[in-house]
Design goal:
Length: 195
């Protein structure tokens, strides 16, 4: 009986959080809300309970959101970039973060972490902006956008690899640091070549 009550309360909290998604919240904030609702379940053995600390779940939602955005922006670059080196880099981002995003989704599923399903509001706007850029202006806009995103991703991974509480999430972040660092190195080279 107690387990059913806890499951019911958890479900209500999650539905309440999801209902809030129709307001001005973005996908990342909605996933964080669901994860906090899962964390409030007092019985850690109850189905639907968050399997990590909230800080690790928040890391996962941000990593997923950033990874999804970098892939989306890079898909646009494959179509619109004039610079061949930039197109190659964009394909590499799609491949690397495509794999990384799948690995994170697998961990999230095991740990019952809700991840964002769509780009957040800011990234949706940036995607539209990139799509509207002329060929002449696209390359610079894309590399600046990716440089900013990748800098955030690198810091996020570095912080989690040091401060993460869950071993699986921390190991994921540690592996992803080298990917984000190699992307950052390439971003710097390409950025300098476009000046």
């Amino acid at each position: 009986m107690m387990k059913k009550t806890i499951n019911f309360l958890t479900t209500c909290a999650i539905l309440f959080s999801l209902g809030s998604c129709n307001s001005n919240k973005d996908s990342t904030a909605a996933a964080d809300s669901v994860n906090r609702a899962k964390d409030m379940t007092p019985n850690t053995m109850a189905r639907g309970t968050l399997g990590v600390k909230v800080s690790d779940a928040e890391f996962a939602t941000r990593a997923a959101s950033n990874g999804m955005a970098e892939v989306e922006f890079s898909k646009i670059a494959v179509e619109n970039a004039a610079n061949a080196q930039l197109k190659y880099f964009a394909r590499m981002i799609i491949r690397d973060y495509g794999k990384t995003n799948k690995e994170l989704a697998s961990i999230a599923e095991k740990k019952n972490i809700s991840l964002p399903l769509t780009l957040d509001d800011e990234d949706q706007k940036k995607s539209i902006e990139l799509n509207e850029k002329s060929k002449a202006d696209f390359d610079k806009a894309y590399i600046e956008t990716i440089a900013s995103k990748n800098k955030k991703m690198l810091k996020l991974m570095q912080d989690e690899s040091k401060d993460g509480k869950d071993a699986d999430v921390r190991t994921f972040a540690t592996k992803a640091v080298s990917i984000a660092q190699s992307h950052m190195n390439m971003v710097n080279v390409i950025h300098d070549s476009l000046k």
